Amino acid sequence: MTGTFLGMPPFPEAARAATADAQLRHNLRAATHTIRDKRAEAVGELDDWTRLRAAGKAVKDRTLRHLDYYLEQLEASVTAAGGQVHWAADAAEANRIVTDLVRATGERELVKVKSMATQEIGLNEALEAAGITAYETDLAELIVQLGDDLPSHILVPAIHRNRSEIREIFLREMAAWGTAAPDGLTDDPRALAEAARVHLREKFMSTRVAVSGANFAVAETGTLVVLESEGNGRMCLTLPETLISVVGIEKTVPTWADLDIFLQTLPRSSTGERMNPYTSTWTGVTPGDGPQEFHLVLLDNGRSDVLADEVGRQALRCIRCSACLNICPVYERTGGHAYGSVYPGPIGAILTPQLKGTGGELEASLPYASSLCGACYEVCPVAIDIPEALVHLREEVASSGGAGHRAEKAAMAAAGWVLGDDRRLGFAQRAAASARSLLPRHLPGPAGGWTDTRDLPDIPEESFRRWWRSRDKEKRQRP
Known about the structure:
alpha/beta, Rossmann fold, 2 domains
């Protein structure tokens, strides 16, 4: 069983441990730089990338404004195509729905397509508690599951592992889950991929239930779409008799014409490819072809609350490409585990606090897990202004309380009082100039965290305002 993120420490504490791991930093730097370079090359091929980006943003914004209408249209389309739609208000309800659906088949095993939504709700753990085993089939997710690990990247969950580590995991764990890794397995990527292929083939051929997520859900036809690179997802979507798809309500797009935009931008932003090797679509059920029972579980789990936030709702545009992770200098040094959530990196720093609230210590720390450099906004294919959302969430955290934030709020109020009156400001400047030789180079107490990495600016002997008045006076006195 893969562990959960419950009980993870706040970001500063987790980041401190992660940055001390030289091997982790090496793995992350090599992987993220490779992906970002491929993305830049693929995006550079398109003369209309800026227009595509703006079009994707517009489609997402329009859909979110009228999400109630499009969700009802999606439900009607899926039902008309022979599928069944279930509505889940939160993680507990979604897990209960899926568990009951699997139990109704009489099966105790299922295969899974890589899915952020099912990780978000802890579906694997809920199924295990009900005596049902879920087998991850995405190669990176398989590595995480076999290693009893946690995902650390949206696109490449095992990005923190190198080939040697993966080989050891396969040799040590595969036999307990099914077909064992071959003796003499090397860390050559082709050998590792072949070991995974043989291991998974048994599951594909014998398992009758599959669970998936979806990258998009087309409202006008009830079609769901998954983009992937290995073909394992397609095996899950076509071979089992029952298919259950858990999909966040924000994944809805109105039409196939709208989908066309994202089929151009998502592959380039995620894997640096013109198109994904496998783009699978399914609409309801077709007698004699593919799964004969299809269930769509539409997941809210806090998304309606995010939708109500005028600044924060832009996070729901996210198409899970991970471009913001690959460009982020903070993520590159800390990795995904430091974010304590299935959604790491810049998008996780705004999405997790909104879905879960900022009341927890971990969630309250995430909006500060950024240098606000803006690189994430520049590469986002749907133009999510992550720095704007981070500042918005920082304001929310600071306003909600906590000793440190109360002190910060009091300090800002005091600064506002001084800066709001020219006489008070002048007095403060004169007092500071008089005491300039007495000021310490390092501040005591909690403020020491600031001066440990920064130099206090020198206070001038004379303020600009005082100098300006002296200058005017001299001009008037000249003959």
